[in-house]
Amino acid sequence: LWCTYHTKSLVEKACTNTLKALNLDYLDLYLIHWPMGFKPGDKDLPLDCNGMVIPSSTDFLDTWEAMEDLVISGMVKYIGVSNFNHKQLERLLNKPGLRFKPVTNQIECHPYLTQKNLIDFCRKHDVSVTAYRPLGGSSEGVDLMDNPVIQEIAKKHGKSPAQILILFQIQRNVIVIPKSVTPSRIRENFEVFDFELTEEDMEELLNLNKSEHHKDYPFHIEY
């Protein structure tokens, strides 16, 4: 659910548009993409004169009620959230009259942003975690996959840095969704079930944490 459709009356329309675009009768999973809404209209990213997003006055608790209606109507099977911090997720879970809790929270997650506290919170409340951008990005001009610690672990196991980063999430019991359009890399992304990272490997990867996000957004977000 994109941010310009957070108004309760627009949620069903947004889902209908998605179903038509995908030529489907229902979705297995539908997520609120961000906890904040943007000004509704023709522009996906409505910006003010300073280049910042124009927010809407919507509350994600109201948006969630419309998401729940999608489950009841059969348009979607499960609903979840994305980019919610623990305070926002806790507020949603404590919502009076909650009919369906989020099945997952999709968040940016990689060794430079391990998200341990948020993952622990989600696990405590039986909300699965989905890691997007698991291969990270650059930090101070150095790409995550070029990090010497990750390179050394990859060399030890005879695997690629990308495979190390994917298995890192799997062994944390985190759903991982790497993205690629290259057939050879897509195949490589699947070839992570014939080896195991040691406790020492996992500790080294966790110790790389910088609580660092790899994308600048034209709006303020609190983590």
TrEMBL record:
<dbReference type="GO" id="GO:0016491">
    <property type="term" value="F:oxidoreductase activity"/>
</dbReference>
<keyword id="KW-0521">NADP</keyword>
<dbReference type="InterPro" id="IPR020471">
    <property type="entry name" value="AKR"/>
</dbReference>
<keyword id="KW-0560">Oxidoreductase</keyword>
<feature type="domain" description="NADP-dependent oxidoreductase">
    <location>
        <begin position="2"/>
        <end position="207"/>
    </location>
</feature>
<dbReference type="InterPro" id="IPR036812">
    <property type="entry name" value="NAD(P)_OxRdtase_dom_sf"/>
</dbReference>
<comment type="similarity">
    <text>Belongs to the aldo/keto reductase family.</text>
</comment>
<dbReference type="InterPro" id="IPR023210">
    <property type="entry name" value="NADP_OxRdtase_dom"/>
</dbReference>
<protein>
    <submittedName>
        <fullName>Aldo-keto reductase family 1, member E1</fullName>
    </submittedName>
</protein>
<dbReference type="Pfam" id="PF00248">
    <property type="entry name" value="Aldo_ket_red"/>
</dbReference>
<dbReference type="InterPro" id="IPR018170">
    <property type="entry name" value="Aldo/ket_reductase_CS"/>
</dbReference>
